[in-house]
Amino acid sequence: EKDGYDHFMLKEIFEQPHTIFDCLRGRLDVNAGTITMAGVQNHIDQIKNANRILIIACGTSWHAGLVAEYVFEELCRIPVEVEYASEFRYRNPIVNKGDVIIAISQSGETADTLVALESAKEKGATIFGVVNVVGSSIARISHAGAYTHAGPEIGVASTKAFTAQLAVLTMIALKVGHEKGTIDETRYRKLLKELEEVPEKVSAALKLNDHIKALAEKYKDARDFLFLGRGYNFPIALEGALKLKEISYIHAEGYPAAEMKHGPIALVDETLPVVFVATKDSYHEKIVSNIQEIKARKGKVLAVISENDEIIEKMADDVMIVPFADELVAPLISVIPLQLLAYYIGIAKGCDVDKPRNLAKSVTVE
Ligand code: F6R
């Protein structure tokens, strides 16, 4: 059932071109210029006119929510807040009738997320579920939703569910923004095409497999790792750090690259690997200076970059090169090398990558 792969995690990482394709299939029609999502269509006025959108999730799903915050604000011009379910539910949050809440969950059973939604629902919010497991508790308490269709995820660390969440959330934002008139037609059409091209770019990124396996050997003995990114790639830095911690037990922190100088820069010396998620986007020049700041302190720089980025290639100790994509869909591709890096460092350290210690696939206790 592992299809010849040594672990479910690796199998699921490699399934992503297919799972993303399945997620887009039947929804995205580039020629017609349409996105078909019944759950969104049925609530379109409500979502379009929402004063704000709240996103509630935990862990990796929360990281997908952070990417969605940037995407929704850009394309729909609706303010978005992303909440840890556990913090939201215990603090007597302000929920108004008519608020739209997007719940993101692979399992659909995460206790903190479920309870947070139940209380928000009582207060009159509309719950929109982005869930992988069909018929799960969160799917059932949602008023509407869109499944991620990634298939069963067995590895405890979430990989293919995450990219499917990003694909669904991006489609929702595109559809709402288009209906609302906050995206111009050319950009809308361009982004539909960009989304359609994601599966093949993910396949190309997976060709980094052997290169990343070698990098894992080189860096496996580091005590700590720092992951940095800006803009749409900032949540991917958080996700890269989370994957590495849970799979290899190496201490890792993710930060917005510019925030580094407000504290974490104190950690930098010649023993610290710093992973930059630095694909070509509107933040590129800024992140180049952040890389310089690390190099000036002798940190080791590993960078996920786009093709033909000689500038960063010259500065970094090691690079992981992925195909260029519009910054809005880039996270779907830039996360791939980080998943592989966590996997191979875990393997190099002899860890049980499919079942990391102390973790459960679905956290049904609070
Ligand atoms: C990390 C991971 C967890 C889950 C979190 C939420 O790899 O798998 O952080 O993302 O427990 O789970 P779901 O999405 O099932 O609500």
TrEMBL record:
Residues annotated as catalytic: 361 (for fru-6p isomerization activity)
Keyword Ribosomal protein on entry: no
Annotated protein name in UniProt: Glutamine--fructose-6-phosphate aminotransferase [isomerizing]
Localization terms from the record: Cytoplasm
Organism: Pinibacter soli
GO MF, any single term: glutamine-fructose-6-phosphate transaminase (isomerizing) activity
Ranges where the SIS domain occurs: 43-182, 215-356
Function according to Swiss-Prot or TrEMBL: Catalyzes the first step in hexosamine metabolism, converting fructose-6P into glucosamine-6P using glutamine as a nitrogen source.
Principal place of residence: cytoplasm
